[in-house]
Amino acid sequence: MHLSVMQQNQYCGYPQIFWTNSSALSSSDCAPQMGLYHSSGIVADQDNCLPLPVPERKRHRQNQGDGTHLCFLVVFLLILLAIMGIGLAMFQIFHLQKKLQQFSSSGCVPPSPDMLKGALNKTAEKKVKRSAHLTGKAIQQSHPLEWETTHGHAFLSGVQYKNKGLVIDETGLYFIYSKVFFRGQTCTSQPLDHMVFKRNPSYPDNQVLMENRKMNYCVTRHMWGKSSYMGALFNLSRQDSVYVSVSEPALVNSEESKTFFGLYML
Q1: CATH class of 131-265
Q2: pTM as predicted
Q3: Where do the structural domains in the chain lie, given as residue ranges?
Q4: 130-155, pLDDT tens digit by residue?
Q5: How far is CA 17 from CA 36, 59, 165, 181, 209, in A?
């Protein structure tokens, strides 16, 4: 029994899709725009049909393909970066070989590691500022005066203290200073001499650098104290030794803020 045209038209605008054996019933891979199902089959307008939606399996395969392409792109970029790094390293090696060839052709020999180490040590020695500050030492019985080299404010930097004197190991311009504080219980009329001198193996005699003398420094039958300070610039040579001497070592006060001796290189 067939339906009338009027009955068929009431289903217009509602696409009908029928599935049989897990596939849509369509002769041209599209869904009929309108149709009815009855015992004899499908009644549909074959001229007007709608495209079928893409099955979910095809979408899943498309997503997998996009991920694979992205993975291949990342691997390609990593390989490209590795090749660029190897090329840069080879270029640097080639540049160094070219420099070595230039040294060899010009007769210049690259410095050995020992030569470089020696040059670095010399540079480090020059950076060390040669200086020393010595303070008074208790119980002075002879001259030259003895000094404290480690305690309190005393220090040595690039200068040696040997046999009561400061030994110079580099020729240059030095500022030398010395301060001595004398103290006594009773007054005497003898002068107080304060002297800075140097010695050198090339000269047999001592060479006076600075000298000071104190007279009339006390009052009879009273405790007294008197200080003497000297400082000046001198050119010192290698192996010079600088000393301090006084006429009355027993009267020297050993406080580090009152009696001291030092130098520094300019």
Answers
A1: mainly beta
A2: 0.54
A3: 131-265
A4: 999 999 998 887 889 999 999 999 99
A5: 10, 20, 115, 121, 121
